[in-house]
Specification:
111 residues; 13% strand; binds zinc ion; two-stranded antiparallel ribbon; alpha+beta
Length: 111
Amino acid sequence: MGGSGKRMGIDMGMRCKQCNQPITSANIAESAFGTFCSDACKEKYEAFVQRAHQLESMRKPRAFARVLKSFIGKLIVILILLVALGVLGAVMPDIPVLGDAVRVLREKLGV
Ligand SMILES: [Zn+2]
């Protein structure tokens, strides 16, 4: 046994998350994101993750704004209908259909 082999590292049975090369104990580079075959691969992957996070954080407020917008739109419709019903009820308090109308509207709006 010479002991001076080219392959110093023991195969760890893992693969680099960036380039998919087998990882040995000699070239292993660990990070919070996973295991890599070199620091270069680790940095590459970290940069990729950071960019993905940036894109995500840029996208999220827009999606939230869209949800908020549709929610406010729904709220305004409900308010208008409530006002209209209130006015109707005030102007013509003896309409027996009004109770049913309110019920149907509520069912349609899901409130
Ligand atoms: Zn790699």
